[in-house]
Sequence to fold (273 residues):
Amino acid sequence: MKRILLCFLLVGTLSGISAQKKKAKDNYSRAVFTMNDGSEKPILFYGYTYPTESFYAFMKGSDIYHFEYKLDPESKLLKVDAKEVKKVKFLDEYEDEKLGLERLKLKAINAKGEVTDKAYDSWQPLLYDGKIKIYGSTMYSCTNNVCSYGNTKIYLRNAKDEFAIMPIDYDRLNLLNIGRIDEKMVEAFRMVGSGCSDFNVYLDSLYSKMQDKVFRKQFSQDWMAVRKKAMKDGREQRLGFAGTQKLIGTYMMEFYMKLYTGIVLEYEKNCKH
Fold:
């Protein structure tokens, strides 16, 4: 059963549901680790560690190194290598899943149109659960504890595949290749939706539409309108700079999810497998 999961957040903001080392010892979230062998381990989730080395070192590993947890509130704090875990399932007061984070093996499409493996894994929340799954998070740029909205990252995975693909290779995005974003996004959907001729016909039509100047102009205007609305709502709600930046992130995620889920729904409508 497909679901749209309204958990638009950045993995880095997990501190909101997990405790930092300096916080009270009872500040934790109930969670379940799904290990690589498929076994499950109920835990009390306290936090995580992430790369602090150079960007190059990060690119060879994962965007989360270790998870910190306890087996009960009075036990000692433990660590597990993130590579040993496939998924973290956070539970609500009724022991139902309220958020899931999955470790994604990533692929991307390079400048030659070739599918390549990324050198690192990424922990991402599941935003849409269907034949094609959508993962994503909002990135913020922070300096001296002041954070500004950076960008919105989206990842796609066919439910039958063990890997996810980046419609946009954020690591290689620059002024020289930004004009090929549409092409790479469509090719990413071809890959996760392979084997369905009707979907390929739809993607051909979508790509042609994306090249239309009127469409591109309207898309840019809609994109800018979302940011302006967030700024306006932030002022009216007196959210301050930080709150307004988070609101921009929320609105932009909703904007991109509308685009991506619309494409996925076309796949689910036209493709039986």
In short: Confidence is low (pLDDT under 50) at residues 1-24, 52-60. The chain is about 30% helix and 35% strand. Residues 3-270 form one domain. The helical segments are 55-59, 181-192, 197-210, 213-236, 240-270.
